[in-house]
Amino acid sequence: MTALTQSVPARNERRYQFSWADAGPFLALAALLALGFLVNPDFLSATNLSNVITRSAYVAIIAVGATFVISSGGLDLSVGSMVAFIAGITIMFMNMMAPSLGLWAIPAGMAIAVVTGLLCGLANGVIVTVGKIEPFIATLGTMGIFRALITYMTNGGTIPIDRSLREAYRPVYFGTLGGIPIPILISAIVAVLGAFVLYKTKYGRKCAAVGANEDVARYSGISVIKTRTVAYVIQGVCVAVAAICYVPRLGAATPTTGQLWELQVITAVVIGGTALRGGKGRIWGTIAGAVILELIANLMVLSDFVSEYLVAAVQGVIIIIAMLVQRFSK
Amino acid sequence: MTALTQSVPARNERRYQFSWADAGPFLALAALLALGFLVNPDFLSATNLSNVITRSAYVAIIAVGATFVISSGGLDLSVGSMVAFIAGITIMFMNMMAPSLGLWAIPAGMAIAVVTGLLCGLANGVIVTVGKIEPFIATLGTMGIFRALITYMTNGGTIPIDRSLREAYRPVYFGTLGGIPIPILISAIVAVLGAFVLYKTKYGRKCAAVGANEDVARYSGISVIKTRTVAYVIQGVCVAVAAICYVPRLGAATPTTGQLWELQVITAVVIGGTALRGGKGRIWGTIAGAVILELIANLMVLSDFVSEYLVAAVQGVIIIIAMLVQRFSK
Amino acid sequence: ADKKVVAVSIPAADHGWTAGVVYHAQAAAKEINAAFPDVEVVVKTSPSAADQVSALEDLSASRKLDALVILPYTSEELTQPVKAIKDMGTFITVVDRGLTDASIQDLYLAGDNIAVGANTAKFMIDKLGGKGDIVVLRGIPTIIDDERIKGFQDTIKGTGIKVLDIQYAHWNSDEAFKLMQDYLAKYPHIDAVWANDDDMLLGVLEAVKQSGRTDIKLALGGNGMKDIVKKVIDGDSVTPVETPYPPSMIKTAIYMTVANLIGQAPVRGHVKLDAPLITQANAKEYYFPDSPF
Amino acid sequence: MSIAARIDTDRFAAPGDVLPAAPVLRAEGVSKQYGTVTVLSDVTLDILPGEIHAVIGENGAGKSTFMRLLSGYIEPTQGALSMAGQRVRFTRPDQAQAAGIALVHQEILLAEALTVTDNLFLGRELTKGGMVDDARMRRLAAAKLAELGCEVPATALVRDISLADRQMVQIARALLDEHRVVIFDEPTAVLTGGEVERLLAIIFELKARGIAVLYISHRLDEVQRLADKVTVLRDGKMVGTYPGHTLSQIDMARLMVGRELAALYPQKQATRTNQPMLSVLNAMVPGFVRDVSFSAHKGEILGFAGMIGAGRTELFEGILGLRPGTATVELNGAPIRIRSQREALDAGIAYLTEDRKGKGLLLQERLGPNLTLSALASFHPGLVVKRAREAEALAQAVSTYDIRLKSLGARAGQLSGGNQQKLLLAKVLLTDPSVVIIDEPTRGIDIANKAQIYGFIQDLVRQGKACIVISSEMQELVGICDRIIVMREGRISGEVSGETMTESQIALLATSERAHVAQGGIK
Ligand SMILES: Nc1ncnc2c1ncn2[C@@H]1O[C@H](COP(=O)(O)OP(=O)(O)OP(=O)(O)O)[C@@H](O)[C@H]1O
Ligand SMILES: Nc1ncnc2c1ncn2[C@@H]1O[C@H](COP(=O)(O)OP(=O)(O)OP(=O)(O)O)[C@@H](O)[C@H]1O
Ligand SMILES: [Mg+2]
Ligand SMILES: [Mg+2]
User: ABC transporter domain: from which residue to which, for each copy (chain D) (predicted)?
Assistant: First the structure.
């Protein structure tokens, strides 16, 4: 055939390499760091940055899971309440086991956390996929359910972690390994795993296909139900990991734990460049998005310009500007 | 070319006539009323029903606007804060004008409310369409901004309406006309107008087209930007109308006014049968959805089955079941 | 030399009472910054426990704090972070809610949430003659809410007062309005209502007014909101008393801390504010028309 | 095949010879580049009123690009348009429409969530006293559709109607207003007999009213019947404009391809065996198909003929678990249960959809992931996707199936329609099935590629697979099949093979009740 030999030079390989869309969140991050430095030079101090990045770890870890859910065409509003619920279950279990297991109650509790997260994610996934309910509504429902359960478990108060476990568990948030805070390490591991699964495995392919076009996925022999349910399960496990890091930080679960995190998580994912309508997820962008959000909050505390009442307004404006910068840098 | 000269008869006519999807929300409403009666016969008392429907009026009015935004393919998370912001502006303006205008301050304040709503909606619309920012994020940003502004205006406290205006304004919420509470009348008018615009005008068609398929709409010479922006403006005006009904109820605006209404509004729209991904809006379903939500909350209080801690869980479960019933009644 | 830095960490103004706290904290900061050139008071608000921990980290990472005045969201969650700051040599003043480790706080200034519930209950028992049917509205599931309810319930135990119903209304007047409407629809006879916060009481009063019912003899709140204190002053028959839980305690705490810092007076130890009933007789002392609360 | 430059263009008039004075639309030296890729270069064309002007070319020659340029969907990077001597510049399609140019797209561009009527009048709704006049629009829509012979209800949602009906709706939409130039980009690709005839009649009517028609088709017989002039594009460049009626189909094909062509249909091979491979008993698809039984043999090409709406697509989607339905299925004599496409693929039965854009390819995705999507399990054993293997497979597929593309980094949606079809074929065959079901294999495929695809199908049966071909082109079925089953209103109305396998016999079975009875004798 004619055109064949001349028309397929592989000269466009380089296209894969740099894309402004991918770089957007990182540029926004850099801009924010520069701005922060101008406002208050302490902003770039090692302690401050390490604090902020450590704090962003929860949202980052959950957002890695959310990147799966969103790129498979779903949405999960229940993650904030799920953190509270899992933290509650975990603490209750650890406290119950502490007398018999001693410090072994901590790893046992962690295992329970992961199993609980998995089941919560599975529940969300099944309601959305098998029940065919709009994810927004389904997970709004489970959000109420998880929140009510933690309220019930705490009788409206707090469940603190047992004193005997407290000190041993503390390093999971406050410790460092080779100078790097443990939550940062954990979120890095979660991100690397997430990126591996999403970009390098068959499951990642399926996830993107289901999010991009359900029909095409179905006609290609991909189970939409299974793929999307697994995405919710991954989300649940990520929430569990975040809860595991969270518990030692505050040492207790309350009915207000994790409130509104779902919005932060989704914002991080979207700022990171993943489209809410599904199709393609960007794990590293998500991580950048989570850090950006925490940096904005930090900047509010470090700067003295803004009236307490207006902090939320300035945050809103900065997020909108960050998105605009990202859009128009293309 | 081979010619087959006869086409198959149109045997699929009947498929398009009665649609369970349209009837779904009304069936769910009826089921809920029956359930309520079983649980507590007082449920169907005139006072109770009239209270509940009056209460659902705000969410219903706002949800009519949201039906436009959602069917045009957008989303607005800022409506709850916008209610608070508009109520704040309105009360401040009325109080300022009361000494000079007397009771005329009330209609003047209402006009200001509508103008403010229009501008807030315009701001949302422009950020989403011209700024090309994912509506979820853009309106999450403005949600923070409106909330912060009302907090700033009230110094975190309350702005009560001037005593001289209070009694004159009260009937807008508590009054009746021909035995029907005024908020119910207002929401009926808003719904009729909304249905008229969405179903009977060119703009309504454009709205549905933009939501169903942006490309097709653009190719048909419809300005996606203009159409979607107008939807946000309609939303803003609806929020203003809701705020106008709201102010006389408690006579004050506070930083907690309208909190989480956005979730209720979106739930009402979706329960009403409008798909979140856009396309065709169902105004009457939306109204049914708003009433359903308020009835569920009412039912929780009137029944004695549920622990105070678990109310949110039961509500979540009922919403999910309502959606399931609607799905599988097809 | 260097200015002495006093950091004030309080919850964000998300309802009436916290708004009062913010108002008084800012007023104190302004007055002190103007009056004492070598003291700087920095006020930071946080919308949740986790954010408050973050704010503490941020404040202490960027500068050395000489003193910290904190109104913690919750005791358990804030104990460790405050201890970390204490370990840097900072003077710690805790307001309202004590930390789980009392040795951390140099100065502790608190209201008494249990007393808020208990005193209200006592008044109600008296007024209703030891028996009656009441409904209760509670706030957001937190310690404060829990303590007030506990104080109330412990006090009515064994009397003829019967709680018909108790539900959350999230310290929000709208939700309280709806909840009260529903209570009224559900119970043909209610003797009294207790909303454990004045924001909610406003909604309750509107609902009662709309219903036109006369069986409700008492509708009480708590916290000392100016509108309600005004009612007490005016001798309202349904709301004749009020329980203070003055947000101005933060101002007192800041002043005491600064006094300690600049060496005017060494202040340490515990200060427990009482929750006496506000009645028509003493209501004027509790009335601050300029406060947002 | 050799690359022959032996086209005797001198037989034809040179381009530009036969130009009367007043073209209604003129494109002058227009080019279109995407980045560094040139899709169309220096095309000059005059379109006269009352003239049917066909544009032909291989898949990817740039025909659709050119039409989109003329009607304002994209802007040229060089060159200019003029109408009646006046320079015009369109930045949006509605401007071109206002100027009197309408385009019927090659792909279906309708809002699926809206009704047929809504779609027809989108952006130009009729109003009465400020209100949209639904009743009148419905009436007009129904009338227009009836005129085109399309019987879909005007109130149906587009999402619920078949591909063919959607195409008719698109055509109706373009014809609703009076235009000066109407452009049809492969309007008949998804149509069969009746509709095609009616469309051609309507085009002649447009011509008679002095309207200029631009017509693109791979069905050269249509071109021959219609065209006053034929412009040939090759690789984005003009080959020339020729008077229509002097060109034979073979001439056109040669001009398009730039070399000699082999016969369209390959010599039939005697690979058919008597060993049934796929047997289907009592297939039912609620609402579409009742009680269909058949079997496909090893080495056989089995055709499925029928008119639009006969339920062929639904039959196979039902059998393969893609829509609700029941059937007893045996593969090589062993009963199997198929509840999803996955199970079908695992059993070795592959189905290639007729709706390549909606159900076949991820248009936003690159070619590699598209190619391996159905075959993930077998292609990437283990957990990880092997990109190098995927790239290799893509290069292989591109050369085997002759997929023309400008870059390997392209997205599937950027391929021309015909090349998308070939990519889809490659994708499905990557699963290495033993039974291949191809729905409309050559829809929108140029003549040279058609021949290739027939060749591929023959290769499949030569390897001992069974191949089922569903097609609305009877000629094609007769040309390549060993046996043809004809369906009518959801049932099998007959079967033809050998002697009886003629177009007229198929047409009879597909349309007439009596044929069903009479056909007992044929069997
Ligand atoms: N947006 C784009 N970016 C890059 N290349 C494109 C784009 N759109 C089209 N092309 C390329 O332009 C060429 C011409 O495409 P076009 O759709 O015009 O072909 P065609 O002649 O209509 O083919 P067919 O007969 O298959 O429909 C193709 O090679 C296609 O890949
Ligand atoms: N979802 C649906 N709802 C209602 N009717 C439908 C739906 N899908 C298809 N139809 C109708 O069912 C009939 C059969 O569809 P279809 O045209 O796909 O059959 P077919 O035999 O495969 O024809 P072809 O393959 O030639 O298009 C048509 O009349 C179509 O209008
Ligand atoms: Mg084309
Ligand atoms: Mg078909």
Answer: 25-260, 271-514
